[in-house]
Design a protein that fits this description.
This protein has eight helices and no strands. The chain is globular and about 55 Å long.
Length: about 160
């Protein structure tokens, strides 16, 4: 299989990761599309350096989150917007209005967290274990557990108000 075909196959298999990361780190559809494209570009640039020491999804999360954090910092400094209408993001297959509203509220509370907290809670919601979150973020598993505990308390407090 050619390198390009293998890359496209892996992106399609794991596009849910990109959709979730871009949803957390973007305020609107245009920003989400811009970030999606930037993450895919960075994945492509780094594709040859993937050694298989970790799962593809772990490596992908790491690049996606680092790109998102860098993108957020750049966006705050520059304030530019790019509309990329030709990028198609994954759409939900089934629609549950109540669930979608609850999910939307949760994401709004998550967006109020700082960039590191957003990433940690996203990975936790994805079902990642502390050890894998530590691999993705570069934090120790103990630090991950402590931070996640604090994030949960913060979110519970926000939801109650």
């Amino acid at each position: 299989m050619q390198k390009e075909q293998q890359f496209v196959k892996l992106i399609k298999e794991h596009e849910g990761i990109l959709y979730k990361v871009t949803s957390i780190y973007s305020d609107n559809k245009a920003d989400q599309q811009d970030l999606y494209q930037e993450i895919v570009f960075n994945l492509w640039k780094s594709f040859d350096s993937f050694r298989g020491d970790s799962k593809w999804s772990t490596w992908m999360y790491r690049i996606a989150m680092n790109t998102s954090i860098t993108h957020s910092k750049k966006k705050k400094k520059s304030g530019y917007k790019v509309n990329l209408d030709h990028v198609v993001l994954r759409e939900a297959d089934a629609y549950d209005e109540t669930f979608e509203e609850q999910l939307k509220q949760l994401y709004e509370h998550i967006k109020e967290l700082n960039v590191i907290e957003k990433g940690l809670i996203l990975l936790l919601l994805e079902g990642k274990k502390y050890e894998e979150i530590a691999l993705i973020t570069g934090l120790s598993p103990t630090n991950v557990g402590t931070r996640i505990s604090r994030i949960k308390k913060k979110l519970k407090k926000q939801v109650r108000h």
